[in-house]
Specification:
Elements: E1 11-17, H1 24-32, E2 39-45, H2 52-62, E3 66-70, H3 79-89, E4 94-97, E5 103-104, H4 108-116, E6 123-132, H5 153-163, E7 174-175, H6 176-182, H7 193-204, E8 207-219, H8 233-254, H9 260-273, H10 278-283, H11 285-301
Parallel strand pairs: 1-2, 1-4, 2-3, 6-8
Antiparallel strand pairs: 4-7, 5-8
Length: 302
């Protein structure tokens, strides 16, 4: 454990934003409602063309803990670059990533800070999460096997693979020192940039502490186009690149090959493409070969 701990360390909440005028107010209200008050909220806008910035500016005007930055045009567009800008601007001991349409439970920061203050600076905290469409209908997912403490990060990644689970970015509260050690967000990725980033984070942690009372809520947008969907070439290529990186990270740190965590992703990518983009599959045959042989065997031999 570190010899000296701040009594109330600053938590830097980093929010990338792009055309979220309809939702960002609710997100910022969930920040204001935190029972832990020593935070700064850094919104980095990615070139919004709606009233997103005007709404954020109202919060900046009434509470100095809110900050708004605009991504410079010479910096690559995307949520990852905006998050990296937020990290660079941050003064906090801990970093809380939050998307511009999602919500934190009121006790999220307080309970996780209290848990991390008892640990060293390479310990990370996780919490419960749920999906929602209407703000007054918030409910967390139950029964996740990843809702527990882990003695290291690879055990959490292996748990994800075994039970086909994941935790969204906002569930974590991360010491800034850990990000400095593992590195920032990969700005070349438009798909699964969070999976690649958090794999590096988890491979560098000393411990994972699950804080049961805290909860975050991920907003569903059925009608929205999402980069995480695999219905376009750019998304597919980025997903494959991210999982190649993840596979390499796990091998370099732990010496493990062909983990279920990565196998699940390969299977998901192939199934999502549904035999489209054959050239991409052939160009990445070595990466997909085990899953392709399994699909062929199942199709022709039952």
């Amino acid at each position: 454990m570190d010899e000296i701990k701040d009594i109330k360390p600053i938590v830097s909440i980093v929010i990338p934003s792009y055309n979220r005028a309809n939702f960002i107010g609710e997100t910022l209200e969930s920040v204001l409602a935190q029972t832990y008050d020593n935070w700064e909220c850094i919104v980095v806008d990615d070139g919004s063309t709606d009233d997103t910035c005007l709404i954020v500016e109202k919060y900046v005007a009434k509470d100095s803990r809110f900050q708004l930055y605009l991504r410079n045009s010479n910096i690559i567009k995307g949520a990852s670059s905006c998050r990296n800008i937020g990290i660079e601007k941050s003064k906090g001991v801990y970093i809380q990533f939050l998307d511009s349409d999602d919500l934190l439970s009121n006790n999220k920061l307080l309970d996780q800070v209290n848990a991390l203050q008892k640990k060293d600076s390479l310990t990370i905290s996780t919490c419960r999460w749920g999906r929602f469409k209407i703000v007054n209908l918030l409910k967390s997912k139950e029964g996740f096997k990843s809702y527990q403490n882990f003695k290291n990060g690879i055990d959490l990644l292996l748990c994800f693979g075994k039970h086909n689970e994941f935790l969204p970015p906002m569930t974590y509260l991360i010491p800034k020192k850990l990000i400095e050690l593992a590195g920032g967000w990969d700005e070349s990725l438009s798909n699964n940039d969070d999976g690649e980033f958090f794999t590096r984070i988890l491979l560098n942690v000393s411990e994972v502490i699950f804080v049961e009372p805290a909860t975050v809520y991920y907003r569903d947008h059925q009608s929205d186009f999402k980069l995480s969907r695999l219905d376009n070439r750019i998304g597919v290529l980025s997903a494959i690149k991210s999982w190649k990186l993840i596979e390499n990270h796990i091998f370099e740190f732990e010496g493990l090959k062909n983990t279920q965590y990565v196998k699940n992703a390969k299977k998901y990518i192939l199934n999502s493409m549904n035999f489209r983009y054959a050239d991409i599959v052939l160009g990445n045959f070595i990466f997909f070969k085990d899953e392709l042989f399994t699909k062929i065997k199942k199709k022709y031999f039952g």
